[in-house]
Amino acid sequence: MYTLHMNPWSFYARRVIALLAQCDLPHDLREVNMMAGEHRSDAFLALNPNGQVPVLVDGDLALAESNAILRYLCNRHGLDDWYPGDPWARAEVDRWLDWTQCRLAPATRDIVFNTVFLREQGNKAEVAKGHETLAGLAPILEERLSKSAHVAGPTPTIADLAVFSCLSQLVLAQARPATPSISAWYDGMGAMKGVAVAEGLMAHAMAT
User: Fold this and answer.
1) How many CA within 13 A on the CB side of residue 3?
2) Predicted model pTM
């Protein structure tokens, strides 16, 4: 059984939870209390020196970085529907994973962290930068989804989980792009079992 060190507010962690739940991979969730500084404890830093969630523990192995975890799980369990073996199809998934990690995720972090978590102490320049970046990225995603049922092709892949996790985080700041193709795709992804489980954890955290 896997152990996933996570926090429900982390969109990086939620994308991994979504895959674990969707594919019925046995796992135990261990919440890392970031407010209490558990991510800076010696025990946690031994798992991930960067002090960030998620971290997947598989026996004696500990793996950080959400997209690396997604790829590992797919490779280990032969989840070819989620991470295709065909070189071109896999490259498409990797392209959108990289696009998300290098472009969409930083904009998401700038907007949500400063607006929702830091509030009046937030860096307004970073918020403005995030919105400016997002304004350039949203049409790219809308164009893609207007021609393809999912981000990297006709069926959902781990790239969809990565993109969805960012957009669901943007909902917290009322900043999710609401164009037609993105909205239809977002609703469809949200109805998936694994995504619903992951998002339910955040909803529970918001209510407590």
Assistant:
1) 12
2) 0.98
